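BUG: 3D viewer hangs when loading the predicted structure for this chain

Environment: internal workstation, default settings.
Expected: structure renders.
Actual: progress bar stalls at 90%.

Input used:
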Amino acid sequence: MTRSTRRISVTAVAVLAALAGSPGLAQAQPPRPAQPLTAAPAGEELPPGWRISGEGTARELVWRAPKRVGMGDARVEFHAGGKLLGVPDQGKDGRTFRLPLDEAAPAELTDLQAQAAGRRLDAADDTSGKRDPLAVKPAAQLPANSVDPGKPGSYRTVRGEYELASIRLPGLAQPVEMRGEVVAPKGATGKRPLALFLHGRHPTCYKPGAEEDISIDWPCAAGMKEIPSHRGYLRDQQLLASQGYVTVSISANGVNGQDGDLDDAGAQARSSLVRQHLARWADWSAHPAKAPAAVRKAPKADLSRVLLVGHSRGGEGVNRAAMDSLAPPPAAQDGYRGPVRWKIRGNVLIGPTIFGQNPVADVPSMTILPGCDGDVSDLQGEVFVDGTRSVSKGTALHSAVYMVGANHNYFNSEWTPGQSEAPSWDDFWEDEEERDPVCSTGTATRLTADQQHQAGATYIAAAARLFVAGDDRVRPLLDGSGKRAPSADPARVLTHAVGARRGGGFLPDGPMKVTGAKLCSAIDPDPAAACLARDTDGASPHFASWVTQRETGRRAVALDWSAPGTPARVTPAKPLSLAGFKDLALRVFVPPNTTGTKLDVAVTDASGRRAALGRVTVDGLPGSNRTSSYWAREVRVPLSAATRAGLDLRHVRSLELTPRSASGKAWLMDAWGFAPGTPAVSAAALPRVDIGRLTVDEGDSGTRTYRVPVQISGQGKGQVRLYVVDPVTGKETDRLVTVRPGANAIDVPVQVKGDTVFGDDVWHTIAVKAVRNAVVGSYAGGVTVRNDDPEPAVTLAPVADRVTEGSKLTWRMSLSEPAAVDLWKPIRILPVTEGAELSTKDVDPQWLLDVSGEEADPERTLSAADLWLWATVPAGSTSVDIEIPTIGDQVAEPTESVRLALTDDEGEPLPGHPVQTGTVLDAS
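Structure tokens produced before the viewer hung:
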């Protein structure tokens, strides 16, 4: 994600209620960059749990969760008005999240939400008006495959650990550990393929004996121990080692503890760490005597046959490692500068993140999507499949493995309660008042920890056997052929794939005409254009969001019918070829928990000849409003009917889907010609694009032009889509750009006008995504224009500080000079030092309610009501009046007073700013 900086201003009425009851303003955290936020509309209060703290450049938007939020791989994000504000810092209590307010995306402070991977954290799911969820029954098991990769091999195993000198990585202040847990076949001869495991983001440290005392600090503080996340894959390693693989699981706590402020969430750092280990293994393979003892116990590793396995953020890390092994990143960003002496044959990605949505198209992959993932709950790892379509040669198989009932953490035993050394938890959030019909513990579809880990190990072994050993008999387990591995029982595992021997795709992302259905957008704030409405129960992994509010060319075909028989016709801009393929494979999803959706499939060639290919039946996945179960099933129809009908399969003009169910909905992701087999994969020579960020001072005068730093390396030419974000409105414009090394294709000038007026940092941001024949590494960057002018001095002085009851006490807050942005300051009501103090019944009750959210009863002094006033000086102005409206009555009262002061973050009066006193005289 890209961050950009701009201050927001919030009116007093908008925030005072949220601050009621607060003894002081919380200490600000160091500001981090994000995007601009505009003022909240007057009269609106922040929701429960939200508040504003701090002042000046230290202002923060703070959310406190009702209970600890687990430290995981999905980033907690603040959203307002449907737009991203930024990524907050999580406090050590696990409940408090702070976002500096000069770190904001363009939006008002309306509809505030805390989200993680699309899941809302600050409010319970709205189930009003909905039926109680019914128990979901598991689907029938698929037929068994001819080979089962989950069976242990013939080798006994040997285990050991190595630890080398820590290394420095760009962007990280502290060195990162070089530690690996090795499990290898005992007595195996010859060189053996290497499988390297990389865990995801998890707490790094814990205090033995203290269940809640965990942190994500690095290095660990005195009295704390490191959490050995890298030892959580021992069962997977032992299975592979028994089958003849050398395995190593590496520790990445040093990255986990420092990736919070990195734009790419640590992907490049993890890639560097992986390649540093691979380089050591290449050294040890060449010079075994120099290897650590744990490595010398193992057979020599064959670095020409490497499998990378990454869990969560580790998945994005190994994806970047595969990319960087084919096309080196910019040297300034890279923590490994040596030669590539290995070949990555495949990636296994377990519940992965992919914030950059930049999968490596030319390295085969298998992505496990846990159906009950409570961390990366949007199952964004589907992009490792969908995002490779038409980007390169298309010969690499990219498989998605949907595992019903699996959560995020239990693939790692060190993240599993009852098995881990440190405190751990079930990441699927339990609602005590409403159990989830699919994912709550004990439901028929939810897997136990051991069942889940066994299923995961089986499919990791399947990927190794296909990608590294080249055993095509395993392919039906991964490519949507509808076979199962009995070793994974009782897990229900479903798969689909793109690539390998597929071609001639009907791809909604490309130019096409659709009739009888809607060509919908995966990411679009317009409900009329979006594929799924915002209020849909559940979500789709195919529509996981990226850094933009709208994406061009990321689409599906949506069918919605109330009677059978009306065909949906998809017609690409040019006829495509299905010649030489056995079947037409379609990826289609229907709403969760539905069964028996029937669609007739037909194709028409360029001469108008039509052939009905057959009927498919599509069932929905088990799902609830808390799962991402709108996921495509792969269904196939043979092309033999088209051959018999004499169609010219070299020139197929259109595809028809005709609903035969009485009513329903369906979404077509794509359709391809399919033939069995796994072709040899070779990487294409492609251009690589990396976006950097330049930070400049605005200066005092004149206009300067800067350019967003862009590096295009590699070979050949390709296309990327460039998004440019307006730093004021946050709206994006996009265009298709042809890139090649040596060409200045992505040229984004930024004009910076110098001034001597205090303002905000301004973040000019661009983002890129590969479209065809291109690779994208660092996907976002821009130019940050740093404000270099001091904040104006602030004074508070009386205008009417001695009045008769029924009048308004008034003070004026003034600036020494105008600012280019709204400036606001907290003013706290303090106890009086002598005499009577104004009470809650001496002021206008509506005013009191507006600024504090409190009623006048029971009567109490204003300071006891913990009252705060907020003065906002609009941009370009130099003063604003602050008023306390009093009310008159017929009761004889002594003279009353109120004291107020500009305060610091702790609620103490600012030095050099005298406390102001207002006096109210009795009118009776």
